[in-house]
């Protein structure tokens, strides 16, 4: 599939592209107010760019008022605002310029995650069920969207591991990175938490009873939550009169 533009960044305009991605991640809720962004080293590794490019991007975000750079022990880049004057152009650069590729990615991810859930329901053992139940309880008890996001990632990783197929685990991780613009974090707000919770419980129950068909359907619908968040953000910055391509998610939902 054509997702090269969603992969590692290239040297030209790299600092600007990193700034666009991080501003979009903040606007999506992948990082909440007060959250500390990953370190320069971690961001450079995630996006496969130089630390100098990351540093330039963080300076841009600081100048636009989206993050605050704190020095010294316990310092770093902290989210100061979810939307700023430069956010609209950043989101356009990160999303709209390659929206057709995102449409294909959304479809691919729903298909793959449905397969992963189906396989987990067929293969999960007692240890897998226990791990899923333990992480689900932690998700339910999350005190902040950031905590919920961490447990969400852990839960779906546990489901992928329940397939007992390392290639499926790695594919799950790669798709998470691509749909989250390379920063490996799903958007998370309390509204998304409330929507995700029932899906998580239904998925865990389907896997526990070995209902492969139900697990596949639930997972496919569940992973459209991020897709819908990206669609809403794209609609916020799309010029009047310009419509997105038809939603594969809408067509998919009508089949269930």
UniProtKB/TrEMBL annotation:
CDD domains according to UniProt: WHTH_GntR (cd07377)
Entries under InterPro entries matching the protein: GntR_C, TF_FadR/GntR_C, Tscrpt_reg_HTH_GntR, WH-like_DNA-bd_sf, WH_DNA-bd_sf
Keyword Flavoprotein set for record: no
Keywords: DNA-binding, Transcription, Transcription regulation
Domain HTH gntR-type, residue spans: 12-82
PANTHER family in the record: TRANSCRIPTIONAL REGULATOR, GNTR FAMILY, UXU OPERON TRANSCRIPTIONAL REGULATOR
Protein name stated in the entry: FadR family transcriptional regulator
Source species: Actinomadura rubrisoli
